[in-house]
Write a structure and sequence with these properties.
It is built from 14 helices and 16 strands. It is of the alpha/beta class and about 400 residues long. The structure holds zinc ion.
């Protein structure tokens, strides 16, 4: 049942209004009292009371603003003031879990990162030791930051694969071999803090909506690829998860009807088998053997850090035709998948992250071309396709945004 059809007692109405004010400020950065009242459909008196409480609690501050900054009617003789959040009044922890790597960050109310750390783990590791490692890094970072733990609202976690946002269970992460891991329960009992989990790409989409280039857009899609490939949908400013939390699993769209490679999901010919880093690495090894004198082979021979994907991009830039052809094919498959998605969902903006945001010339530009060619009517011409505005931080900023939107209301 929709929330608007449920009854409410007076205490939860107050909490609800408080949360509406805080989330509006989180989203907009600053608003006048009049704008807040209009936006949330509350009386000016109620807003004045709520803002008074928030000022007393040190969560918001007032500042004078110029005429064009605040778009309300100004009573004669009174200065315009905007209410804005005090960024360091509260903090959240954002955790991005990828395949074989996780990143933890502590962020303030603007989702600005204070401290962060990245660690690797064995891909075939069980979930529990990885979650233990995440807890240890989280505690270390909080200590290093010097932030009062009482000011930390909670932890947002972006996980790979199918994630049940309501129960907090990582239902299926084929690239990690995790099944039904109750991540929320495990982390909240170990850390003693509220924890919320969601799919990691969905978190990135939320982060861009609140704090990035997706601001004020009705619809956007974030598409992320490294070892796995996935998408996160935003509709009317909110995350769209689908009926079984599976919306956005484009990595498992069947692209090849026959002869496709097996995928970690158990099927064949999925998008992920064609465009992931794992595939690039495998094909780079093939090219190295077939063309031992080629630019790519030379770069790989002098690569001491095992950064094969970077070698492929570098070789393409240096004029290696085989590396260029390989990347062009990947961008083509990604473009076809995104063209199909544009026909289905018709978003305003598609943001690319991870591998797909690495080199404009080899992913974004050819992807845009394919999308323009393969979509219905002018849908492909109208959709914007860009790299994420957050670069490598997209995962943690997204996870922190999830925690901010879930836990940001006064309970203490
Ligand atoms: Zn698959």
């Amino acid at each position: 049942m929709k929330n608007s059809l449920l009854g409410n007692n007076i205490i939860s109405v107050k909490e609800h209004n408080l949360q509406a004010v805080l989330l509006s400020l989180l989203y907009e950065g600053q608003l006048s009292r009049i704008e807040l009242a209009k936006r949330i459909h509350l009386s000016n008196t109620t807003i004045t009371n709520i803002v008074g409480e928030l000022l007393a609690a040190g969560l918001v501050t007032e500042r004078a603003c110029s005429d064009d900054e605040v778009d309300g009617t100004r009573p004669v003789g009174r200065p315009r003031t905007a209410i804005c959040l005090v960024p360091e009044a509260r903090y959240v922890v954002g955790v991005h879990v990828g395949v074989g790597t996780f990143r933890v960050a502590l962020a303030d109310l603007r989702d600005e990162i204070l401290v962060n750390r990245t660690e690797n783990f064995e891909i075939d590791s069980e979930a529990e030791p990885v979650l233990d490692q995440i807890c240890k890094v989280t505690r270390d970072l909080i200590e290093v930051s010097g932030v009062d733990p009482a000011k930390i609202l909670g932890v947002g976690v972006g996980l790979s694969g199918l994630v049940d946002f309501v129960t907090g269970v990582n239902v299926m992460a084929p690239n990690l071999n995790w099944r039904n891991v109750p991540v929320k329960d495990i982390l909240s009992s170990k850390l003693g803090m509220p924890v919320v989990v969601d799919n990691n790409v969905r978190c990135m989409a939320l982060g861009e909506t609140y704090f990035g280039v997706g601001h004020n857009l009705e619809s956007l899609v974030f598409v992320y690829g490294r070892i796995g490939v996935g998408a996160g949908f935003i509709s009317k400013g909110e995350v769209f998860r689908g009926s079984n939390m599976g919306a956005g699993e484009i990595g498992h769209n069947t692209m090849l009807l026959e002869g496709g490679d097996p995928c970690r999901c158990g099927k064949h010919g999925c998008l992920e088998t064609l465009v992931s880093e794992t595939t690039i690495i495998r094909q780079a090894e093939d090219l190295r053997q077939r063309y031992p004198e080629g630019i790519l082979a030379n770069l790989m021979a002098s690569d001491r850090e095992g950064k094969i994907v970077a070698c492929v991009f570098e070789a393409a830039q240096a004029g290696d035709e085989h590396a260029r052809a390989m990347l062009a094919k990947k961008a083509y498959y990604l473009g076809v998948a995104l063209a199909n998605m544009v026909n289905l969902y018709n978003p305003e903006l598609i943001l690319l992250g991870g591998l797909f945001a690495q080199e404009q010339a080899y992913f974004i530009e050819p992807v845009i071309k394919t999308v323009r060619q393969m979509t219905f009517g002018d849908l492909g011409d109208r959709v914007r396709i860009e790299a994420t505005s957050f670069g490598w931080k997209a995962g943690v900023i997204g996870a922190a945004a999830l925690a901010l939107t879930q836990f940001f209301y006064l309970k203490q």
